[in-house]
C-alpha cells in the first residue's frame, strides 16, 4: 500500500518538477536558436563565398586598370617617339628643299647636278632614317616641255615608264638619291597620289603626306612626303596663287612606314607584349592601315588609341595598341579570395562547433538539473514512504502493547512480570524508534527541534539497558550503567533524543561485542577533567606498553576484567571518581547552592565496550552515513551504518561533541558531552512525567553488603542500591563479608547487621570456600536473634546446574540477572523481603481501570464524531470508566450542545468531519467562551456560581499521531489529543492532566 | 454443564481463530472488554451499527463508481475515510486494510483500481459479517444454556 501511495505521490511530484523546470529553465540566446544553427552556418558560408567573389572581382578589376594604364603609357610612348622621329625627318627634308632652292635656282648656273645631289643625300641619309630616299622633281609646263627634254636629253615618262602624254604641267624627277634612282625622269604628276600631293604642297607651302600606298620598288606600305621649292622669295603672307606661280619644283621623300615602325619598336622594351597598328584616319569612315595587319588576333577586349601628328594638318593619323595575349588569369586574386574563403569557412565551422558544444553542455546541464530535482523528489518520496510505513507499523504495535498492558494487569510472578515489562518497554522503544525514523527526515532537513522537558536520566539509561538485556545475557556480555551522584536527578532536555543516542551507542556495542562488558558511565564533565586527563594520558601510554609485556596474564581492572580501549573507566581512575564523590559528599551540600545557580549542566557520557573495535583505516569515516567499517560488517552484524551519523547530529544539536577511542580487537569507547538545563525542583515535583520512574521507597535505610572482587562492578551495584536508598558496604570476598558480618553482629548488634547480602557469581565461584563461608554466615546469623540476611546472587548468565548449586549453597532466596536496573532490583527485593506481595500503588504501570475510573467517574463528557461506530465505541469506553457520555454527530451539533451555560466537563472531538471539522468547531467554542467570560467579568456583581472562567477541556481524537497535527490542535485551542482507537494508558494520561490539576469546581 | 463448557471452548477457539486470520485485531478485544452488566450487548450493538454503516457506504461508493460521466472521487474519499474510521474502531482489521488500499487508488483517481478494491472490500465485509454473526450466535447459545461468556485474556 505504501508503494501505491508513493506512486501517486510521485505523480504529483513529477508534475511539480515539470512545472518547475518550465519556469526555472533559463534559455540562453544560443539555446533558444538551436534549430537555426545549421542555417546560420549555411548563411555564413554563403555570405563568405559572396565576399570572396567580390574580393576576387575587385582585385581583378584593379589588375585590369593597371594593365590598361600600362598599355596606354606604352602606346603613348611609341606614338610620341614615332612622331618625334618623323618630324626630325620632315625637318631635314625641309632643309633639303631649301638647299635645292638655294643652290639650284638662285645660283646661275646651278650648283647642283644629279651627281652632287646623289652624293649629298647619300652622305646625309643618317639624318633621315625614316626615309627610304629623296628626289627632286622640277615643275615643267607644257610649253617648256620640248626645251626641257632637249636640255636633259630624255623624254618625260609616266609612272608606268611610258612617254608621258600631253598635259598642262609635268613634274619630272631630275635629282634623286641613289636608293631611288629608278624614278629619275618619271613624271610625278602622273601618279594620282603624287599629283594630289604636289598640288596641295605648292598651295600650302608646307610638307604634305600622301595616304599610305605600296611604294614602288619595296612594296612596303609607305607615304610620300612632298615639299614645294620656290623660285623666288615669297612675300611675307603669300596668297595661294602667288605660291603656285612661285613654285619651281617639288622635293619628295618616301617614308617606308612599315620598316620604320618596325625599327622603332625594336628599340623599345616590351615590344613583344603589345601589338601596334598605325592608321591613316583622314577619311574617318575608311581607316587606312599604315602599319600592322588588318586582321590580327591579340586581345581585342583592350586597346588604346594615341593620336599621331606628322605635321600635315590635312592628314590625321593614329596609333592603336593592344596586348598580344589575352589578360592572364590573376592567380594572386584567385588565391587570396580562395584563402579568405577557406579561413572564413574554418572560422564559421569553429563558431558552429562552439555553439553546438554550448548547446550540448547546456542540455547536459539541464538534464543534470532535472535529475537532481528528480533525486530530491525521490528523497521526499522516500521520506513519505518511511512515514507511511512507520505509521502502518504503529497499528500492530499498539496491539502488542495493549496486550502486554493487559498481561501486566494479571497476577504474575516477579520473573514473569520482568519479562512482560521488558517486552512492553521494548515495544515502546520500538514505537519511539519508529518516530525517530520519521524524525530522520527532519534531521536531514535541519528542522529537528529539541524538546526541553524535565526527565530522569537514570531511568532512561535503565530502560535502554533493559532493551538490550536479553541480547547481552545471551552473549554473556556484562551490561552495566553507572551515573555519578552529582548528576542531578532530573534534568531539562530532550529525553527522546538522549535515549536515541544511548540506544545507538549501546546497540552498536552489543552488536560488536562477544565477550567482556559494555559499560555506560555518566558524570559531570567539569569535575573529573583536571584530575583525569593527565592520568588518562599516562594510562593510555603506559598501559599499552605493559599490555605488550604481560598480555593475557594480566587482569585488567575494568568491569569484567577484559581490557578496554580507553582506560579511563578502569578502576585506577574510576576509584578516584568514586572516592572523590564520597569525600565531597558533605561538601556537595554546600555546593548545591552554587550548582543550582548555574542554569546548565554539562554531562560526560561514555559507552565502553570490549568488542572487535574499529579498524584504524575506518576510524575517520565512522560518523559518515551508511559507512560501516567495511562491507563485511553489515554481512556479519547487520545494520545500515546510519546510526552513528544520526548520533553525531543529535549530540551536536544538544550542544556537545562526540569522540571515540578504539583499538582493534580490544574495544571501543565512545564518549560524548551534552548540555542539559538544570531542573527547578518546584517544576518537576508536581508534573510527574511518565518517564520519571517511581522507585519504591520501602527499602530506604536497609543495609546491604556487596561481595565482589571487581571494584568497578561493585561500584555499579552500589549505585543501583543507593538509588533505592540503601546503605551499601563492599566486601572483596565472601570470607571477608562473613567475618565482617560476624564481627559486627557480635559487637555492635542489630544496628549494623546487614539485611541483604548480594554476591557476585564470579566471586562466589572463584572462592574455594564459598559454600563453607556462606554456611558460617548463615550459622552466625542463626545464632543471633535477628532475622537472617537475605542472600542474593548476581549473575550475568547462569546455567541450570549453577543455579542448582547456588540453591544448595544457600542462595535460596533469589538470583538477580544482570544488567542491573533499579526497578528490577526493587522488584526482586520486594519478592525476597516479602513486601512485594501487594502491588505498590504508585509504581510502574499505572493500573488503568481503577485510576481512570476514579478520575472519570461521574464526569459528563461530550463525544463529537461523525462516524457512528466510532462514536459508539468511544462512548462505550468512557462509560466503562463511569463517565456520563453524550454524543454529537457533527461540529454544529456540538456547538449547539455547548451553548453556555452547559454542564459538560470535557469534550472529545474528532478532527476530520464533514462541514465543520474539529479545528473549526474548537475555534468557535473558544470564541463563544471568551465572549461569555468577558460578559461575566463585566457583570461580576451578579454573583455567578462559577468563579472560574469558562474553559472546557477539548481533546482531539485522531488516528494519526504526527507532531504537526498535534501542533495544529494546540493552535486552535485544544488541550491535548488522544489517539484513536482509545488506549487506556493514553486516555489516562490525557485526561489526568485536567482532572488532577484542575479540579472542576461544580462537580 | 458439559454442554456449556463445550460451547465456551468452541467460542474461545472461534474468537481466537478470528484473531489468527486477521479478521479482527485487538481493538475488538478491547470492545469486548467494555461489555459488562450495564451494557451486555455492547459489541453486538456496535457491530450492527457498523454493518448498517458499512452497507450504506459500500452502496454509495458502488453508485458513485458507476457514474459514466466522471467519478466523484472526493465523495469516495469521504466514504472510505468514514469506513476506515469505523472499521478501525471496531477492530475489523481486514476491512480496514482493504480501505487503506482503496484509499491509495482513489487518491490516484484510478477507477479500475477502485472497482477492484470495492469488490475486495465487499468481500471482506461479508466475510466479517458472517464470522461475527456466527460468533454472536455462539454467544447467544451460551447465554441460553445458562453459561457465561468467557472473557478473552
Automatic annotation (TrEMBL), chain A:
<dbReference type="GO" id="GO:0048509">
    <property type="term" value="P:regulation of meristem development"/>
</dbReference>
<dbReference type="InterPro" id="IPR042240">
    <property type="entry name" value="CHASE_sf"/>
</dbReference>
<dbReference type="InterPro" id="IPR036890">
    <property type="entry name" value="HATPase_C_sf"/>
</dbReference>
<dbReference type="GO" id="GO:0043424">
    <property type="term" value="F:protein histidine kinase binding"/>
</dbReference>
<dbReference type="GO" id="GO:0034757">
    <property type="term" value="P:negative regulation of iron ion transport"/>
</dbReference>
<feature type="modified residue" description="4-aspartylphosphate">
    <location>
        <position position="910"/>
    </location>
</feature>
<feature type="domain" description="CHASE">
    <location>
        <begin position="108"/>
        <end position="320"/>
    </location>
</feature>
<protein>
    <recommendedName>
        <fullName>histidine kinase</fullName>
        <ecNumber>2.7.13.3</ecNumber>
    </recommendedName>
</protein>
<dbReference type="InterPro" id="IPR056839">
    <property type="entry name" value="Receiver_AHK4/CRE1_1st"/>
</dbReference>
<dbReference type="GO" id="GO:0010271">
    <property type="term" value="P:regulation of chlorophyll catabolic process"/>
</dbReference>
<feature type="domain" description="Response regulatory">
    <location>
        <begin position="860"/>
        <end position="995"/>
    </location>
</feature>
<dbReference type="GO" id="GO:0009414">
    <property type="term" value="P:response to water deprivation"/>
</dbReference>
<dbReference type="InterPro" id="IPR005467">
    <property type="entry name" value="His_kinase_dom"/>
</dbReference>
<dbReference type="InterPro" id="IPR003661">
    <property type="entry name" value="HisK_dim/P_dom"/>
</dbReference>
<dbReference type="GO" id="GO:0080117">
    <property type="term" value="P:secondary growth"/>
</dbReference>
<dbReference type="Pfam" id="PF03924">
    <property type="entry name" value="CHASE"/>
</dbReference>
<dbReference type="GO" id="GO:0000155">
    <property type="term" value="F:phosphorelay sensor kinase activity"/>
</dbReference>
<keyword id="KW-1133">Transmembrane helix</keyword>
<dbReference type="InterPro" id="IPR004358">
    <property type="entry name" value="Sig_transdc_His_kin-like_C"/>
</dbReference>
<feature type="domain" description="Histidine kinase">
    <location>
        <begin position="388"/>
        <end position="678"/>
    </location>
</feature>
<feature type="domain" description="Response regulatory">
    <location>
        <begin position="703"/>
        <end position="833"/>
    </location>
</feature>
<keyword id="KW-0472">Membrane</keyword>
Automatic annotation (TrEMBL), chain B:
<keyword id="KW-0932">Cytokinin signaling pathway</keyword>
<dbReference type="GO" id="GO:0043424">
    <property type="term" value="F:protein histidine kinase binding"/>
</dbReference>
<dbReference type="GO" id="GO:0009927">
    <property type="term" value="F:histidine phosphotransfer kinase activity"/>
</dbReference>
<protein>
    <recommendedName>
        <fullName>Histidine-containing phosphotransfer protein</fullName>
    </recommendedName>
</protein>
<dbReference type="InterPro" id="IPR036641">
    <property type="entry name" value="HPT_dom_sf"/>
</dbReference>
<dbReference type="GO" id="GO:0009736">
    <property type="term" value="P:cytokinin-activated signaling pathway"/>
</dbReference>
<feature type="domain" description="HPt">
    <location>
        <begin position="39"/>
        <end position="145"/>
    </location>
</feature>
<dbReference type="GO" id="GO:0000160">
    <property type="term" value="P:phosphorelay signal transduction system"/>
</dbReference>
<dbReference type="Pfam" id="PF01627">
    <property type="entry name" value="Hpt"/>
</dbReference>
<keyword id="KW-0539">Nucleus</keyword>
<dbReference type="InterPro" id="IPR045871">
    <property type="entry name" value="AHP1-5/YPD1"/>
</dbReference>
<dbReference type="InterPro" id="IPR008207">
    <property type="entry name" value="Sig_transdc_His_kin_Hpt_dom"/>
</dbReference>
<keyword id="KW-0597">Phosphoprotein</keyword>
<keyword id="KW-0963">Cytoplasm</keyword>
<comment type="function">
    <text>Functions as a two-component phosphorelay mediators between cytokinin sensor histidine kinases and response regulators (B-type ARRs). Plays an important role in propagating cytokinin signal transduction.</text>
</comment>
<keyword id="KW-0902">Two-component regulatory system</keyword>
<keyword id="KW-0007">Acetylation</keyword>
<feature type="modified residue" description="Phosphohistidine">
    <location>
        <position position="81"/>
    </location>
</feature>
<dbReference type="GO" id="GO:0005829">
    <property type="term" value="C:cytosol"/>
</dbReference>
<dbReference type="GO" id="GO:0005634">
    <property type="term" value="C:nucleus"/>
</dbReference>
